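Look over this record before class:
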Amino acid sequence: MNSKDKNTNLLFWIPMQYNFTIRLKNNLQKIISWLFINLFPTSYYALVDFENITTKTIIILITFTTSFFYLYEFGYIQNDLISTKKEKNPTERLSPSQKKYASENYNFIKYWRILIFVISALIIFFLSPTKNTIIAI
């Protein structure tokens, strides 16, 4: 595996990297649009529950947002890898080497993302000053 493939395969593991690289194609306008549609509203509603915004609140927000979108992003991976096989005219977003890597590591990628989400949810639960956080998750 050359260094380019190794760096490319990181997008399956680094939170939000798949979305920004494959879906939004590192396009600044698309990324800004995504931030306004997804990240900012999520952050706002997450902070509404807190009376005082502290460092702990920011850590909870970052943990929640990152883990939520990390798990959500797996749907994109599944669509680009599996669902496109059933379409007549699929939009091919992955290169052959990316498809091969994702196919070979599909279950590990899936379970890793679920595990990170569960661990993050537990961290949020234990750090949160309110027990309503579990409802938000």
